[in-house]
Amino acid sequence: MLEVFFLSIIQGITEFLPISSSAHLILFSKYFNFSNENLTLNVSLHVGSLLAIIVYFKKDLLDFVNNKILFYKIIFSSLPVIICGYFLVKYNLINFLRSYEIIGWSTILFGILLYFSDLIKPKKTINKDFKYSYAFYVGLFQVLSLIPGVSRSGITITGARFLNFNRIDSVKISFLISIPTLLAVSIYNLKGLLLGENLEVSILNFLGIGLSFIFSYITIKIFIQFLKKFSLLFFAIYRVILGTVILLYVYY
Length: 252
Description:
The two termini are 34 Å apart. This protein has twelve helices and no strands. It is mainly alpha-helical. The chain is 77% helix and 0% strand. Helix 1 (2-14) runs antiparallel to helix 2 (21-32) and helix 9 (152-162) runs antiparallel to helix 10.
């Protein structure tokens, strides 16, 4: 029960903040010896985050007639990471990227990159300027999120900021792109459950979905409000400090 609670908090908060959910899940799981390899729990946590982003942007999603071109671009933007992620998992390459050293360096380097991208003055808006070429560009950035410590939201926000989109629109692009990505992760994990004939679902799984949804929704709401008043500097500093601590542990 306690493990589900902590993992739900970590998933809900770090999935949408530019600080890497995978890095935090790996670090916390190893430190506290959590057995988060439970596939049904993994599905539950991602489903909770997926539901949160769908509920938060329900108006945009329901207004499909006016936004269908935008959603085509969002799906197009998500294809690179879904394809690359599939092959990394298929050939069991993802485990080679889960070391403390890689997490530490990627946390620092992409935190610094996030800081410099946030210095760029915004000139574009998502409604007028988000072209297919920009969607593909952000999608290529998102591929880097397969490396633990990079952060899917962080790298997509970074990519959008480098394209001169303002912070709020950059975050919106990042969050909308997360929908097909989270859906793909959930479907892939569910496929693993079906093929493994392990369909045991307990109250803990529903608790995981509920808690992940709550913490994800609250995080999305607070993060967007935060960026209306402040920059991304806080998250860049946090990443550098966290990465430095990890590297000190690795090398000393």
